[in-house]
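Re: your question from the hallway

Yes, I did run it. Sequences:
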Amino acid sequence: MEIDPFIFRLSIFILSIFVGYYVVWSVTPSLHTPLMSVTNAISSVIIVGAIIAALSGTSEKIFEISNIFGFLAIILAAVNIFGGFLVTQRMLQMYKKKKNK
Amino acid sequence: MTANLSAIFYLISGILFILALRGLSSPETSRQGNYFGIAGMTIAIVVTFLTVGSFNLGFVYILIFLLIGGSIGAFIAFRIPMTAMPELVAGFHSLVGLAAVFVAIAAFLKPEAFNLGQVGNIKLASLIEMSIGAAVGAITFSGSVIAFLKLQGIMSGAPITFKGQHILNLIIGISIFILVYFLCKSQLSNYFWILILTSFILGFLLIIPIGGADMPVVISMLNSYSGWAAAGIGFTLENSALIITGALVGSSGAILSYIMCKGMNRSFFNVILGGWGATDQPSTSASKEQKPVKSGNADDAAFLMKNASSVIIVPGYGMAVAQAQHALREMVDALKKNGVKVSYAIHPVAGRMPGHMNVLLAEANVPYDEVFELDEINNDFANCDVAYVIGANDVTNPVAKTDPQSPIYGMPVLDVEKSKSVLFVKRSLSPGYAGIDNDLFYRDNTLMLFADAKKMTEDIIKNL
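Structure:
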C-alpha cells in the first residue's frame, strides 16, 4: 500500500516543531525581540502562495477576484519581509561588546 | 522548473530559516543568521516565479506590488523608534495573519491554480487545511490589531471584561469547528465567508480582556498563531518551506509565551482569561494607610552612587515610556569614570515584549556583556551598594516572596531590597500594573526619587 504524501508533509511539520523547539531554547534571552521580528519576517514566506494566486489564469484575466487577493497578499507579505528583516538588522547592529577590554 | 526540483529548493530555504534562528543564540552570530534568513526568502520567491513559469502580465504587477510593499516595509523599519518595537511587531503579526487569510481565499476561489481540484469540488484534506489557515490567520489578524491599538495607546490598556465572556468565546470557538464541518460537507462558499468572519470576531474577543502589562504573553502568543496559520497554508500548497517555517515560528512563539508566563508565575490560561486588574480589584485601595516613605533628590542619589563601589540598574517599562535609556547610559558612563562597577539586571517580563529592555539598552550603546538576566544577577544584589530602579515596579516587589495572599506571590522577582540602598525612580507611590502596593517603597534602605525617569537621571548626571 502506498503512503499518502500528506503523511510526509506531516512528518516534516512535526520534525520542524522539534527543531524549532531546540533552536529557540538556545536563543539568548537578550535577543528575544530580534527573534520575534525575524520569525515575523520568515513567516511571510506565505508570499509563495500569494504569487501563485496572482499569476494564475491568463494575461487577459489578470484582475480576477482571486488574483486580486493574491496581489493584496503580496503587498502585505512584502511589507513584512522587508520591514521584518531590515528592522532585525537594525536591532542586531546595536548589540555591541564592551570596547576597552 | 520541475516540481521535484523546486521542492528541493523550498527545503533549502526552510533550512536557511532554521539557521537564521540558530544564529540568534549569540549576538556575534546573529547578523549572519539574519543574512541566512534573507537568502532563504530570496530563494523561495525566485523558485516560485520559476515554477509557475507563466511570465504573463501578472509578473510585472507582482514586481510593482512587491516594490510598493517593500518600500513601505523598509520605510517603517528605518523610521520606527526602538521604544515602539512592541507595536511594530504586533502590527507585523496582523499583516501575516491577513496575508494568510487572503491566500486561503484565493485558493478557495481558484483551487485549480493550486492543484486542489475545482470550485465546488475541492479535495477534502485541502479544504480542511485552508480552513485552518484562514481561521487561524483571521484570529491572528484581529487579535494583533487589538494588541497594536492597546500598545499604541489608541485603545485603553485596561482589560475589557463582561459577563459570560469566556462562555461566549467558547461557543464561537466551537462554532468555528462546526462551520468547517459544514463547509467540507457542502463546499458552499457561504460557510467559508462566515468562518472567516467568525474567526475575526473571535480574535477580537480573545485579546480585549487582556491588560497592558500582559502584552509580552499576548505578542508571543500571536507570534505563535501567525506561525500555525502559515503552516496551515503550507499544507494547502504542499510547500515544505512554508510548513517548516510555520512550525518554527509556531514553536518559537509558544516557547516565548511559556517563558513570559513563567516570569510572572502564572499559567497561560490565567493570562489569556483576563488581567489581574479585573480579578483582584478589592484588595488594593481599601488599606491605604499612610506609611512613612523616605524621599530624596538628585543630589542625594548622585552622592550615594558616586561613593558606591557597585551599582545595579533595574530598568522597566517606565524607562521605555520616558525614553530614558540614553540618559541612563550617560549616567552610567559618568559613574564608571568614578570607578563604580555598573551592571544591568533585566527581569524576563520587564517591558511590553520579550527582550524589550535589552533592545533599548543596546540602542543606547550599552554593551551586552554588562546586561544580565534575572537568574544570572540575582545573587549579586546582596553585595551591591546601590540598586537603581528606573521604571520597574512589580518585578522588584518583595511581597512576591513573603506574602502568600498577594496575587503576585511566587512570581520570580529581583532581590533589589538586599542591596545596601535602593534608589527608586517613580513619579508617585501609585501601585503598578498588578494593582498592589510595593513593599519596597517603605523599606529603611529605600530612597524614593519622585520624578520622571529621564529628568531624574539627567539631574543626577549634573550632580555627579
